[in-house]
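Postdoc handover notes: sequence design on the structure in folder B. Input tokens:
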């Protein structure tokens, strides 16, 4: 017989959070007639001191992120329009595919939190009829519509009757075409999404200096119905498609991503035991609790919470077979929620050894333990930045509500990312360090149920990504999925296809 879930939740309050879409972006800073300059250097890298930003040559550290020397403290969202795409196949047989590509691309751009995507009805009159060559585009009309850049696309054919997708990025003020690496790609109904992901990454590199995370997924725990048990689910970031990974009469919580394709690990309550599973297969089955696991950056070790010796402690397991490698904590308090530093040499974790849950850091051998949130009365759910010294966590701020904070491990500097309404819990970084996913309530809808949201690294923009009426918790972000398909340029970037006719951009 399963125990009451609220009893299990008492343990899981300390547990680690591991780690799109119909979204409305909040806020737009764009003044017509004022040039928004394109970033030419790496932007938004995490920092704790001015020296961390010296690569930007005059950049400065603000709110834990490097800013360019000319960057306003309030980062603008680039206003981008996706024009109707054109079917230029000789027989016009790809109209449905063509328009679905435009719709999908528009949806992909929004959750990047770098673009304010104009609605289709905000496009200038006649936009659907204008061409995709520079001389055929009414740039002044696009400027009046508020677009800094406009994206156009065509689906045509190449010899062999294969379909080809051509994408064009134009800067409206200059009337200039900006070539990107994956502007031209062979396409079909099966690979359309992956082709767009490639191009969106190119776009983000152009504007920000780094690729995006559109190929990633977010795992989570959810109670689909008020009386149901918690299950593990998955959201595809590029499409917002949401599916359940588990579907059982048991309790499944605390998902994380294990090394390998589609490997999701989670804590499952089965027949009176709390074990760690990978895709329904038992991985850690020691007596009592097995929960809150995270793999080291190299995949060789797993940090996990076990209570095999009665007390709740943090252990390292062999990352392949689950055998115990070492015990890291030996304290009468509760120690849980381990998260690795980017180099794998340190771990952050939660302990109530000072009387209340706080965030601690130690070496991977268990030495040099220190508290990094000494002023916090209830701090849990740490997640270490994928290549920085920042740890994001949630802290109780009153009335049982939580907000998100970051702490710089080296300096101890704390920054608050959210400030109501409602609660914000279980944060997890994206693999590129730009975003944080979390579970929250109070942003519309049922205040008793938590939904999933993402925010940028400084907490300025928040968007909802979950799609059902369930109660969500403990999201985890997957690594970036690298394409196993090599890119083969079809022609030089300046050459395009119109039907079977080759044209050259000018």
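Designed sequence:
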């Amino acid at each position: 017989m399963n125990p009451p879930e609220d009893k299990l939740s008492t343990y899981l309050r300390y547990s680690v959070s591991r780690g799109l879409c119909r979204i409305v972006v909040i806020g737009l800073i764009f003044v017509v007639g004022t040039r928004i300059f394109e970033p030419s250097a790496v932007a938004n890298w995490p920092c704790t001191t001015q020296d961390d930003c010296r690569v930007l040559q005059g950049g400065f550290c603000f709110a834990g992120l490097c800013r360019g020397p000319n960057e306003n403290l309030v980062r603008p969202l680039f206003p981008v329009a996706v024009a109707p795409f054109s079917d230029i196949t000789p027989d016009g047989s790809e109209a449905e595919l063509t328009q679905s590509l435009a719709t999908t691309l528009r949806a992909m751009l929004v959750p990047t939190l770098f673009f304010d995507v104009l609605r289709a009805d905000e496009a200038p009159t006649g936009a659907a009829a204008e061409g995709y060559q520079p001389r055929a585009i009414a740039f002044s009309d696009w400027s009046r519509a508020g677009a800094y850049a406009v994206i156009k696309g065509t689906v045509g054919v190449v010899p062999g009757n294969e379909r080809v997708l051509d994408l064009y990025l134009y800067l409206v003020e200059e009337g200039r075409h900006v070539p990107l690496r994956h502007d031209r790609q062979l396409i079909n109904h099966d690979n359309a999404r992956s082709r767009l992901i490639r191009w969106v990454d190119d776009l983000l590199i152009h504007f920000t200096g780094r690729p995006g995370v559109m190929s990633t997924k977010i795992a989570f725990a959810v109670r689909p119905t008020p009386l149901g048990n918690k299950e593990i689910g998955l959201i595809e970031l590029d499409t917002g498609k949401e599916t359940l990974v588990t579907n059982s009469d048991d309790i499944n919580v605390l998902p994380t991503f294990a090394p390998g394709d589609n490997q999701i690990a989670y804590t499952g309550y089965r027949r009176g035991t709390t074990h760690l599973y990978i895709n329904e297969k038992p991985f850690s089955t020691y007596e009592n609790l097995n929960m809150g696991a995270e793999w080291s950056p190299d995949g060789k070790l797993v940090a996990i919470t076990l209570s095999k010796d009665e007390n709740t402690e943090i252990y390292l397991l062999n990352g392949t077979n689950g055998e115990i490698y070492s015990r890291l904590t030996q304290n009468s308090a509760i120690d849980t929620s381990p998260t690795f530093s980017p180099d794998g040499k340190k771990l952050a974790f939660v302990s109530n050894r000072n009387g209340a849950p706080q965030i601690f850091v130690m070496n991977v051998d268990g030495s040099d333990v220190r508290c990094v949130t000494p002023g916090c009365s209830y701090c849990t759910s740490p997640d270490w930045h994928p290549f920085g010294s920042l740890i994001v966590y949630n802290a109780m701020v009153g009335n049982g509500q939580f907000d998100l904070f970051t702490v710089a491990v080296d300096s101890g500097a704390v920054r608050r990312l959210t400030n109501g309404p409602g609660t914000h819990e279980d944060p997890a970084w994206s693999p590129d360090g730009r975003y944080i996913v979390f579970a929250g309530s109070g942003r519309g809808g049922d205040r008793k149920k938590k939904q999933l949201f993402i925010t940028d690294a400084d907490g300025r923009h928040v968007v909802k990504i979950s799609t059902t009426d369930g109660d969500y918790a403990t999201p985890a972000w997957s690594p970036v999925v690298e394409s196993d398909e090599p890119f083969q340029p079809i022609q030089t970037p300046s050459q395009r296809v119109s039907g079977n006719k080759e044209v050259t951009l000018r």
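Context for whoever picks this up: Residues 1-43, 484-506 have pLDDT under 50 and may be disordered. Don't rerun without checking with the PI first.
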